[in-house]
Write a structure and sequence with these properties.
With 819 residues, the protein is mainly α. Among the domains are: 1-126, no CATH class; 156-279; 629-731; 734-741 and 752-819, no CATH class. Helices cover 74% and strands 0% of the residues. The chain is built from 39 helices and two strands. The chain has a two-stranded antiparallel sheet with strand order 1-2. The relative contact order is 0.03. Mean pLDDT is 88; it is low at 1-9, 405-410 and 805-819.
C-alpha cells in the first residue's frame, strides 16, 4: 500500500502509467471497432468492457485520470452509435440492456449499462422514468470517490437529451418533468457526496498535502455541477416549479453537506446557471440558506455574485421592464424596492458581523458591489437612504476592533493586505461620488466618516480627485456655504498635506511627483469656478470657507489655489456694486482680496510679476466701484512689489507693460493721484537696463499723459522726445534703430491726430526724414524690406489724411538735435 501511494505521488510514474493505460485503451478500442465492422455484438461488448477496465485504476491523479476518461469517452461515442444502429435494425435494446448487466467488473458494467440505457430510453421500450431510476440507483455500486464521480458525470452526459422534460418526446408515458428533476437532483446529491469524500479520504497529513487535495477537488467541480446545469435547461422548470420544488431541495442538499468547498461551489453554481428573474423572486430562501452555510465558506463572495446577476438583470430590463417588474405606481415600486433592499441589507449585515480576518477583503468587495447595486437598481427616492444604510454597515465593519487600529483608524490586520482593503473602500466611495449629486452626497453622512480610514496620500486623495472630476464633468454648481464646507472637507488631501505627517507643506522636487501635485491643484482651482450662489452673501461666505482651507495648503499650493479665488472675488465685488440687497459690500471683498494678494507677494518672490498684475487688477476693480483711495492703495502696492522684488530686466519690462495698460484703463482716479502714478511709471521706464527697452517703454508712457484723467501735452512731448533721444543713442546698426524710429513715428502721428497741441507737424516731417536717411543706410535684407513696407504704409496713410509732405522739411539730424 505504501509503495502504491509512493508510486501515485511520483510524477514520472504517473506519466508512464497514463501512457500504458492509453495504449491499452486504444488497442481495445481498435478491437471493439473491428468487432462492430464484423457485426459481432458479443465481441463489441467484450472489448468495450476491456476498454473500460482501464478506468478502474486507483493510481492515477485526478488530472491524469481525466485525460484517460476523455479518451475513453470518445470511444464510447462509437459504442453508443453502434447500439443505436442495432436498435434501428430491430434488435431488442431491452435484451441488450439486461445482457450488459452480466459483465464481470462493476465499473465497466455500469458504464456499459449507462451507454445502452440512454439508447434504451430513446427506443421507448420502457418508460424513461423507470430506466432513469434504475440507472441512478445502479451507479451507487461504485463508491470510490474519483471513479464514482466520473461515472455520475457520464450518466448525466448520456441522458441529457433523454429526460422527460415538458414538451419532449419522452413526456407522458415516459414520465413528467418531476421525474427529470428527481433524477437530476439525486444524481447531483450522489456526485456531491463522492466529491466531498475525496477530501476526507487521506485528509490527514501535512498542510501542503491537504492543500493539494483541495486543489484536485477544485479541478473536478465541473463534474458535480453538470447536473445543475442540465436542471436549469429543462423547459419544464418554470419560476413556480423552481421556487416550490427545485430550489428548496437544492438548498437543503447544499446546507446538509456541511463541506466548505462544496457549499461554496454549489451556491455559486446555482446563482450562475438559473435565470435572473428566478433569483429575484426567490431571494428570501436563497439568503436564508447563506446564513446556514458552514464556517469557512466565503458567503460574501456568494452574495456578491448574486448581486452582480441582479444588477445586470435590472440594467437589461430598461425602464419599461422595471415598470412591469415593480409596477407603474411610483409609491408601490418604491415599497417593493425597499422590501428587496431590506432583505439584502440584513444578509449583508450578518455577513459582515460574522466575517473573519481571512474574509476581510471579500467582505469589502461585497460592500463595494452592494453599493453599486443600490445605486444602479433603486430610484432616486430611495437610493440615497439605501446607500446610507450600506455605508453605515461598512463603517461598522471597518471600525471593528478585530482588524482596525484605534491609533491610525486604518485597517491593519496582519493576515490581510491593508492596501487591497483600502483600494476596495476607495472604489466604493468613488462609485458613490460618481453617481450622486452634491446635495445627495451631503445627505450620506457615513461617506465623510469613512474617509479617515483611508491613507491620506493614496486612496483618500484618489477619492478627492474623483469628487473633483465628478463635479467638473457634471458642471455641478456649489450653491451654498454648507456645500462649500462639504467639498473642502472631502477634497482635504488636495488642499493640504497629511496633518499626521512629520513634515508639512514641503515643496516637491521637480519631477513626476511635482507634476502630479500641480495637476491636482489644477483640478482644485477649476472647482472654484463651480461656486455659483444665487445669494451674493452666500457666495462671499463660500469664498471665505475656501480661503481658510487654502491657507493651510502651504506656499507651493497657494500659487495655484489663490489665483482663481482672487479673480472670482473680484467678479463678486463688481456684482455687489450693482445690487443693493446684499449685506456684503464691495469694500469688504476688496479687503479680502488684498489679504490674499499680499500673502502671495510676501511668500512667493518668483510670482512677483503675477502679484503686480493682481494688485493692478484689484485696483481696476476698485476703480470701477468708485473707491479711489482703495484703488490708489492697490496701485501703491503694485509699485512696492516692483521696487522691492523685481530686479531682472525682462520681468521689469513685463511689469511695466502691465502698469501702463492698467493705468490707461482707470477712470476714477483724481488728476493728482493719477499724475503721481503715471510719473512714477515713467521714471521706472527710464531706468530700464537696455536702451531699446527704455526707448520703447518711455514711448508707451507717453499715452499715460493723454488720458481722460490727465491731458498734459507737454509731458506727452517730453516722453516722445526722450524716447527718440534714447533710440538715437542706441549703439548698433540701423537695422536695430529703424524699427524703433518707426514706432516713435507712429506715436507722433497718433498724438498729432489726437490734437495734442505740443505735437506739431514739423516734428513729423523731421522724423520722416530721419527714418528715410537711416533706411538708405541699412543693409539689404528682410529687415530692411519689412521696414520699407512699414514706412511706405505710414506715408500713404499720411497722404490720405493730408497730414504732411512725404519729402519732409529740413535735415533730419537737425530735427533730432532740436529735440
Amino acid at each position: 500500500m505504501d509503495a502504491a501511494k509512493k508510486f501515485v505521488l511520483d510524477a514520472q510514474g504517473q506519466q508512464e502509467l497514463l501512457r500504458e493505460a492509453q495504449r491499452n485503451a486504444r488497442d481495445q478500442a481498435f478491437r471493439m471497432k473491428r468487432a462492430m465492422d464484423a457485426n459481432e455484438p458479443n465481441g463489441v461488448l467484450k472489448h468495450a468492457a476491456e476498454l473500460l477496465r482501464e478506468l478502474r485504476t486507483s493510481l492515477l491523479s485526478p488530472k491524469h485520470y481525466y485525460e484517460l476518461y476523455m479518451q475513453v469517452l470518445d470511444e464510447l461515442r462509437h459504442l453508443e452509435s453502434y447500439v443505436e444502429d442495432l436498435r434501428k435494425s430491430g434488435t431488442s435494446i431491452r435484451a441488450l440492456y439486461e445482457r450488459v448487466q452480466s459483465s464481470g467488473n462493476v465499473l465497466p458494467r455500469l458504464y456499459l449499462l449507462v451507454t445502452v440505457g440512454a439508447v434504451y430510453i430513446k427506443s421507448k421500450e420502457a418508460p424513461a422514468r423507470e430506466v432513469l431510476t434504475d440507472l441512478v440507483e445502479m451507479t451507487k455500486g461504485v463508491q470510490h470517490p474519483l471513479r464514482g464521480l466520473f461515472l455520475r458525470h457520464y450518466l448525466s452526459l448520456c441522458v441529457k437529451d433523454a429526460l422527460p422534460d415538458a414538451g419532449s418526446a419522452f413526456e407522458g408515458d415516459g414520465g413528467s418533468v418531476d421525474d427529470a428533476i428527481a433524477f437530476l437532483l439525486q444524481n447531483l446529491s450522489e456526485a456531491n457526496r463522492l466529491w466531498i469524500r475525496m477530501q476526507s479520504q487521506k485528509a490527514a497529513g501535512a498542510p501542503k498535502d491537504r492543500a493539494a487535495r483541495e486543489t484536485e477537488r477544485q479541478d473536478l467541480r465541473l463534474l458535480v455541477g453538470s447536473s445543475l446545469v442540465r436542471l436549469s435547461q429543462l423547459d419544464g422548470v418554470t419560476l413556480p416549479v423552481y421556487a416550490a420544488q427545485v430550489l428548496p431541495q437544492v438548498l437543503a442538499a447544499v446546507v446538509a453537506c456541511k463541506d466548505r468547498i462544496a457549499q461554496q461551489y454549489l451556491m455559486d453554481c446555482v446563482i450562475q446557471v438559473f435565470p435572473d428573474d428566478f433569483h429575484l423572486h426567490s431571494l428570501e430562501p436563497m439568503l436564508a440558506a447563506m446564513g446556514q452555510l458552514a464556517d469557512g465558506v466565503d458567503v460574501a463572495a456568494v452574495l456578491l455574485a448574486l448581486l452582480e446577476r441582479l444588477a445586470k438583470y435590472h440594467d437589461a430590463l430598461g425602464d419599461a421592464g422595471q415598470r412591469l417588474l415593480y409596477g407603474a405606481d411610483a409609491d408601490g415600486a418604491a415599497a417593493k424596492q425597499q422590501q428587496l433592499f431590506e432583505l439584502l441589507v440584513h444578509r449583508v449585515d450578518r455577513v459582515a458581523a460574522s466575517a473573519s480576518a481571512a474574509t476581510v477583503v471579500s467582505t469589502m468587495t461585497l460592500f463595494r458591489g452592494f453599493a453599486g447595486f443600490t445605486l444602479a437598481c433603486f430610484n432616486d427616492s430611495t437610493r440615497v437612504a439605501c446607500l446610507q444604510r450600506v455605508l453605515d454597515c461598512c463603517l461598522s465593519f471597518v471600525s471593528d476592533a478585530r482588524w482596525s487600529s484605534s491609533t491610525t483608524t486604518t485597517i491593519t490586520n496582519s493576515t490581510t493586505d491593508p492596501t487591497v482593503v483600502h483600494s476596495y473602500l476607495s472604489e466604493l466611495l468613488m462609485h458613490a461620488v460618481g453617481a450622486l449629486q452634491l446635495p445627495e452626497l451631503m445627505r450620506v453622512a457615513a461617506l465623510r466618516e469613512l474617509l479617515p480610514f483611508l491613507p491620506w496620500t493614496r486612496e483618500r486623495k484618489a477619492v478627492a480627485l474623483a469628487v473633483a472630476r465628478a463635479l467638473l464633468a457634471r458642471h455641478e454648481p456649489i450653491a451654498a456655504v454648507a456645500q462649500m464646507e462639504f467639498v473642502v472637507d472631502v477634497l482635504a488631501p488636495l488642499v493640504r498635506d497629511d496633518p499626521d505627517a512629520p513634515l508639512l507643506c514641503v515643496e516637491p522636487a521637480p519631477g513626476p511627483e511635482r507634476d502630479a501635485v500641480e495637476a491636482e491643484q489644477a483640478q482644485l482651482a477649476k472647482v472654484l469656478h463651480l461656486v455659483r450662489c444665487a445669494d451674493l452673501d452666500a457666495q462671499f461666505g463660500a469664498f471665505a470657507v475656501a480661503r481658510r482651507a487654502f491657507g493651510q495648503g502651504g506656499v507651493f499650493r497657494i500659487r495655484f489655489t489663490l489665483l482663481p479665488l482672487i479673480f472670482r472675488s473680484l467678479e463678486l465685488a463688481r456684482a455687489l456694486e450693482t445690487t443693493a440687497t446684499a449685506q456684503t459690500r464691495p469694500r469688504e471683498v476688496l479687503q479680502f482680496v488684498h489679504e490674499m494678494v499680499t500673502a502671495l507677494a510676501s511668500k512667493l518672490e518668483q510670482m512677483s510679476v503675477a502679484c503686480v498684475n493682481l494688485f493692478l487688477q484689484c485696483a481696476l476693480a476698485a476703480d470701477r466701484c468708485a473707491f479711489e483711495a482703495v484703488a490708489y492703495e492697490f496701485l501703491t502696492q503694485a509699485f512696492i512689489v516692483y521696487e522691492d522684488q523685481i530686479s531682472r530686466s525682462r520681468e521689469q519690462w513685463k511689469a511695466l507693460e502691465l502698469m501702463v495698460a492698467a493705468l490707461r484703463a482707470t477712470r476714477g482716479l483724481s488728476s493728482a493721484n493719477y499724475e503721481v502714478v503715471a510719473t512714477k511709471t515713467t521714471q521706472h521706464a527710464a531706468k530700464l537696463l537696455k536702451k531699446h527697452e527704455q526707448a520703447a517703454m518711455v514711448l508707451n508712457c507717453a499715452h499715460l499723459f493723454w488720458h481722460p484723467n490727465l491731458q498734459d501735452g507737454k509731458r506727452v512731448l517730453e516722453c516722445l522726445q526722450r524716447s527718440l533721444r534714447i533710440a538715437d543713442a542706441c549703439t548698433g546698426s540701423s537695422a536695430s534703430q529703424v524699427p524703433l524710429f518707426l514706432e516713435i513715428l507712429e506715436a507722433y502721428l497718433y498724438f498729432f491726430e489726437a490734437k495734442t497741441p505740443e505735437v506739431m507737424q514739423h516734428y513729423l516731417n523731421g522724423l520722416l526724414a530721419l527714418v528715410k536717411d537711416h533706411l538708405e543706410n541699412m543693409e539689404h535684407g528682410q529687415t530692411r524690406s519689412e521696414c520699407e513696407v512699414r514706412y511706405r504704409d505710414i506715408l500713404r496713410y499720411m497722404d490720405s489724411r493730408a497730414l504732411a509732405s512725404a519729402s519732409g522739411t529740413g535735415p533730419a539730424l537737425a530735427f533730432v538735435a532740436s529735440s
